[in-house]
Amino acid sequence: MKNRKWGMALIAALLCLCMALSACSNDADDDPNEVVGQDWRTWGLVVDSGTITRNGEDTAVLVCVEDDGAYFYHDDENQVLFDFVKFPEEYGLTSGNYNAIAFEDGNGDGNTDVAIQFNMDDDNQLVLVWMYDESSNGYYFYDEIVDDNGNSDTPDETPEQVITNSDWEHDTIIEDAGDEMYVADATVGVQTYYPYGYVVMEVISDALVLYDNNFNYAVARCVNDIYADYNGSVEEFAIDYANSYIYNDFGPLYSMFSPIVDMDIKDPDNPNDLAQMDGYVYDDTESAYVRLYIYTDADGNVMAKSFYVTDDDALTVMDEMCSGVNHTAWYGIEG
Question: What is the pTM of this model?
């Protein structure tokens, strides 16, 4: 590996993206049913989109993936190529391996770099990184990062236990607690235990976020202050929390903004919980099954813990996450 520190900015952005659409091909050029003059963006070629910044100028691009690389076209009715990255031949990649893409300034030079995540035949995920070279005004292949899902039950001893937003970091302590991991976040005042294979994602400034490496998240806050100032029942507080905090959290987690929040008050799973809500958060391209708990910890602090699950087997995964992320409580530094 080369410089991994800068690369985590790209990885954080990549993990926050929704699952990619099906791979595309330029075979549409030979389609006998093609309508002359039809907008190419309607042909089913586009698998993703993003914004590339160069020399302070932003360009909206649409992504098409071929067996030999990813091509970035201007978001215009005329199919005009902006730039591209070529897949290194030694990896044996095809368009079918493509999973997701991130456009992010990985080295702080003000220009957008590229990270692409691929699904591999051995159940691993491979992330390849391309850097922008100003002298050639193009991308060159830089590095690879392998995500071995087969080792997800093994404690991660590397700095990648925390995936950090490129703009800020939380003050966290992470420890191996024997059969699970422990994190204490002094920045947001939350501590919890969580399963091996999860990572802490610093993608929300006022909350502790845990990511299971499969597009599912747990988000925890201490809400003592806002609950103390709230005029209304705990059920009304939960509804308002869902319509504000859960609404706003959806963007940093899934790169989807202005979602619809459709959640209902439920009888709490735990009789000691103050309130529980279940439902969905979604927009035109992404959705997640969501569960919210409002409860008090052992010291009487009011906590809010929400879970976002995108798996097909959502109920089972939700129950596993709710039990896996446990003893979530307020955390303060004494003295």
Answer: 0.55
